[in-house]
Amino acid sequence: MIEEADISNEKVLEAYRNLVMERMLDKKMLNASRQGFLPFYIPLMGHEAIHIGIGLALRNIDYFYPYYRDFGALVQLGIPMDMIMSQVFSNASDNELGRDMPDHVSFKKYNIGAVITPVAGHLMSAAGIAYAKKYRKSDGAVLTTFGDGATSTPDFHVAMNFAGVYDLPMVFLCENNGFAISVPTYPNEEGQSDAYEETRGPIYKKAEAYGFEGIRIDGTSFLEVYKQTRKALENASNGPVLIEAMTYRMGPHSTADDPNKYRKDEVPEGSDKDPLIVNQKILKDMGILTEKKIQDINNEIDDLTSKLVDKYEKAPKPDKKTILDNLYETDPWYITEERGDIE
């Protein structure tokens, strides 16, 4: 539990409200995908507390390199909802001009690096920014996130090694949800499994191979994620840290995945391990939340998210003329020629 003086009750309540917003938006955007308004979607259920904790922890001097399941962190950071929702629905006001998959944002204005699909491919870019910060002696650190499956990629090990060798101001945060798509992260309690495992040892201990600290935290409590991530960012001038935040992916990996084919639902919505329920209990114990307040927030957010999804489902798509925009500073002759064919 964080110290009361560390963060105000009002800010904690706002964070909980954003956690509820992520949950409700997630369910409604998943439905929008099934109805054909989104060609593809990456569900978030189970990750909400990690996202809100990250958003609370980041400072305006830090850089953030997220992966494709960090929607809620953007909400908590205060990124305008129009920018977020326009990107998800690939609308005319999308910063990416409708060219990328949902949740693949890039907000340079807010020190947020581009989300890319190849697993762990953004970690080396994050390490490069951290190296630049150290070289320029600038304040702040770089936080980058990824799933447990990313820790088995070459990019993860290259970035970790580079950060360790150069003692970079960097925080690696693994959102361990128990599955790399359909592959379990660890063997079961008996050390055996009917399926292949992602890794034999705890992910946080992988930091030892590269000469820096690794820790494991409860990823279902946004206050715990906030506390440990902020501490790591503040101490990053002393070198990198790997955080393994433990949670459970309550839905499919994506809309192209059917989790019923490889697992039983171990954490159903509303259970004691559901991050929403976990944080309700914590905030009730702190005297910040009551059953009436929970219901009031649910009613408010349900109405708000329904209106948001309805608005962006109906918003116009980018004009076909924009398909060749932002490719070159000055169009070469063949782009000019192609523009004529489009028009």
From TrEMBL:
GO terms for biological process: branched-chain amino acid catabolic process; sulfur compound biosynthetic process. Residues 255-273 have a biased composition (Basic and acidic residues). It comes from Acidiplasma aeolicum. Residues 252-273 are annotated as: Disordered. Keywords: Oxidoreductase, Pyruvate. The keyword Oxidoreductase applies. One of its GO terms (molecular function) is oxidoreductase activity, acting on the aldehyde or oxo group of donors, disulfide as acceptor. The keyword Repeat does not apply. Gene3D superfamilies: 3.40.50.970. This is Pyruvate dehydrogenase. Residues 17-319 form the Dehydrogenase E1 component domain. InterPro entries: Alpha-ketoacid_DH_E1_comp, DH_E1, THDP-binding.
